[in-house]
Amino acid sequence: MPVALELGIPMIPMRKQGKLPYTCISQEYKLEYGTAKIEMHTDALERGWKVVVHDDLLATGGTADAAAKLVKQAGAEVCAFSFLVELEFLKGREVLKNASPDIYSLIKY
């Protein structure tokens, strides 16, 4: 949120299923022990917007990949991913390369 405020751009929340208070679209993704869904408001993005998907952790890439699919479903484009921490040994970056080759992490383990 602070980055979006500083840049004067919208921050679009994507949350686990059932956490957002409006009509949503959802995307299922795989977990080590099953599946989960993330959601985004149906009116959150406009067609043609360029979006950076940001999350705290890049592990297997499932959540960020699901977020990218929601962005595309809404008619927008993922131009980059950014993360605070990346667990390189889980190779999540490989999962995301098809959505955008621009992937940034502040800390890598």
Please, what is the average pLDDT? 95
> Mind summarizing the main beta sheet?
3 strands, antiparallel
Question: What is the number of helical segments per DSSP (H or I, 4+ residues)?
Answer: 3
- Quote the distance from N terminus to C terminus: 25 Å
Strand content: 35-45%
Number-wise, the strands total 6
Write the element-wise H/E pattern from the N-terminal end onward. HEEEEHEHE
Mass-distribution shape: globular
Low-confidence segments: none
Strand arrangement within the widest β-sheet reads 1-3-2
- Helicity, as a percent range: 10-25%
Radius of gyration: 13 Å
Sheet/helix structural class: alpha/beta
List the helices and strands and how they pair.
Blueprint: H1 2-7, E1 15-16, E2 24-31, E3 34-41, E4 50-58, H2 62-73, E5 77-86, H3 92-96, E6 103-108
Parallel strand pairs: 4-5, 5-6
Antiparallel strand pairs: 1-3, 2-3
Please tell me about this protein's structure.
There is one protein chain. The two termini are 25 Å apart. The chain contains three helices and six strands, in the order αββββαβαβ. The mean pLDDT is 95. 21% of the residues lie in helices and 39% in strands. It is of the alpha/beta class. It has helices at residues 2-7, 62-73, 92-96; strands at 15-16, 24-31, 34-41, 50-58, 77-86, 103-108. The longest helix is centred in the middle third of the chain and has 12 residues, at 62-73. It has a three-stranded antiparallel β-sheet, with helices on one face. The protein has a three-stranded parallel β-sheet with strand order 4-5-6.
